[in-house]
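Exercise 7.
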Amino acid sequence: MPEALVIGAGPAGLMAAEVLAQAGHAVLVAEGKPSPARKFLMAGKSGLNLTKAEDQACFEAVYRAPFLLPALRAFGPDAVQDWARGLGQEVFTGSSGRVFPKAMKGSPLLRAWLARLSGLGVELRSRWRWAGFEGTALRFETPEGARLLAPRTTVLALGGASWARLGSDGAWVPWLTAKGVQIAPWQPANMGFRIDWSPQMARQFGQPVKGGLLRVLDVGSDRPLDAQRGEFVISARGLEGGGIYAVSRALRDGGRLEIDLLPDLNDEAITTRLARMKPGESTANRLRKLGLGAAAVALVMEFARSTPFAALKHLHIPLQGPRPLDEAISVAGGIAAASLTETMELRALPGIFAAGEMLDWEAPTGGYLLTGCLATGRWAGQAAARYLAQMG
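Solution. The predicted structure, written as tokens, is:
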């Protein structure tokens, strides 16, 4: 019977296991999938964005979740970088402030981390899927059959409800709800949006639109709700990519999308450039000469064919809602702050702590998500270690 149990072997769970083991406790990590940290590895395939190097106040502001602040202040961007270096993974900071390991991928860091955990005596059991409570014990479905565990303390780090095939399926919600834990409804975060394209847009699927300014406006008043410069991609399903993800929260909450395709040119400069062009040139050629790529030209012709030049600074994009929850990079919703103590212990279940995407917070991509998971895992793990120490 383990002294400390961690359920979920993603970044939050592994960090909780690390600090518990460093405090001298015997730790068992139960992971439902055949191998640990699958979503972490998937994220790392295109470059593992560990954190964001920026002013701490600016960093904290993106979370809009006051209950996370103590954890983020205890393990912020600088601490994340030091932790990665401690695992033998040198890091570098890109021009946007995003921090990556020099190896770029997640697998070298994960291998080093698992080796450290093994050296600390942490036991990892794969294909151990949590199946709820049985009395005061936690029930698991394992390759050897059902198992019941009653550890002295537990850290839950089961993820949210997106990318179910990688392990985050939200199956735990009814079990905690039945115990009196309040769960905020799931919503997609950092997701693409659906658009019903005309047939001629098919040739642009997979193509990026670069250099634009994406604005989200209040539907009733046209008051700006958010604005970000960024690249996004035209896909068969709609729009996706970093630029869209950066404004996805405001769009999900009811704003409308408007794109300034030439943010470095004002109206006067555009008019002057158009006046210098030869008479009789096609609209598409004129748009290209203004500096638009083929995908951006296609967007203008799709949504503003009758007034293409007037729309360059204010191209309205009609969206048909967000992509499904399971396609989202992350989620909003989860265990409500009111159900947690300041140490992330569940008020309804003393001795059980929670961390990572199970909690009701969201953040944009760019290093914020991973830092949030690491920080809350560390915070919950330290609290669980103190709980054990107080029990004697």
